[in-house]
Amino acid sequence: MSEHGGNVLEMALKIGTDAENIIDFSANINPLGMPDSLKKAIVAQLARAEHYPDVEYRQLHSALARAHHCLPENIMAGNGATELIYAVVHYLQPRSALLLTPSFAEYRRALQRVGCQIHNYAMSAADGYQPDERLLEVLVQLRPDCLFLATPNNPTGLMPDAALLQAIVRCCYQHHIALIVDEAFLDFLPEEPGLIPQLADFPGLYVLRSLTKFFAIPGLRLGYLLSGDLAGIRHMKQQREPWTINAFAALAGEIILDDQPYIQATHQWLAQQQHWLYQQLCALPALRVWQGRANYLFLHCLRPEINLQQALLQHHILIRHCANYPGLTRDHYRVAIKSAADNRLLVSALQQVFGHG
């Protein structure tokens, strides 16, 4: 069983159907699909596949730097944000780390690979799956070498309080704790500035970004790491394997951040469908739903006799079970927000599963 969403083929084989017959709510990918601007660029530049990419990816790093008003030297692009999680952990070589739970599995796996001692900061339904001032106390007491923080968090989709986030940044700076902030889904929150504008003030701050989800290019794989630690970025670039980013992923990063019509259409779609789907799910007494800010919603099924993932598979709908997240159970799930038509099918299937459709 995959630890991530999007494993449609495995689930299709389980129920004896073809993968294309399943509606995938397990992977949080923009339903608008790959931008037309990128499709046209790839077709027009197919010959890129006949040449090695620039091993330094100069055009890509320049485009990302323009988008974020920083220097190319502040940025390292990678084969999705996941490659960069491992790269920054390998560079930092932390002996101890603090992880908020539940959170994305690859932080833990990357830390385990370097033999790091991991401390858990548990979040639960009682605290709304959100950190509070207690996190600052734990940081001061433990003094870990690094802290991973996702804004918004995965799988809950929740953003920490803005004032608390700034206090965490300052606390980590004061106590020489490397702070790795995963902003993989922040592009879905147009009103949130993120921490990139503060890189120059906090050299121990490392920000992860992903273009995979927002621009619907999971098969291309593209993410990037930003930091004011120029020596660290330079070291990570020198230590990496060559050509981890394929030519078309690099091309994507060079053009899609300028595609304002696509970006605006995505924000408009999400504003409509996020509200609609949240309201519809809240109307089901068998579900407890958290009002996430990203393009997915976090659920607790209050009917433990129902395996919701298996029940929905009978309707050819795949959702993400969250039992493998530390601190969660087999009754916790995550669903992507998709097109209006697909979202209606999900709600209808849930009504039938719970017996009040």
Low-confidence stretches: none
| Oligomerization state | single chain
Helix content: 25-40%
Q: What Rg is obtained from the alpha carbons, in whole angstroms?
A: 20 Å
The residue-averaged pLDDT reads 95
Going across the biggest sheet, name each strand in turn: 2-8-7-6-5-3-4
**Computed structural class:** alpha/beta
Strand and helix order: HEHHEHEHEHEHEEEHHHEEHEEEH
User: Which geometry do the CA atoms define?
Assistant: globular
Our count of helices gives 12
Distance between the termini: 31 Å
Share in β-strands: 15-25%
Largest sheet: 7 strands, mixed
Q: What is the number of beta strands?
A: 13
Q: What's a quick, concise take on this entry?
A:
Decarboxylates L-threonine-O-3-phosphate to yield (R)-1-amino-2-propanol O-2-phosphate, the precursor for the linkage between the nucleotide loop and the corrin ring in cobalamin. With 357 residues, the protein is an alpha/beta fold.
Defining key terms:
single chain; 357 residues; alpha/beta; seven-stranded mixed sheet; four-stranded antiparallel sheet; 13 strands; globular; PyrdxlP-dep_Trfase_small; threonine-phosphate decarboxylase activity; threonine-phosphate decarboxylase; pyridoxal phosphate; PyrdxlP-dep_Trfase_major
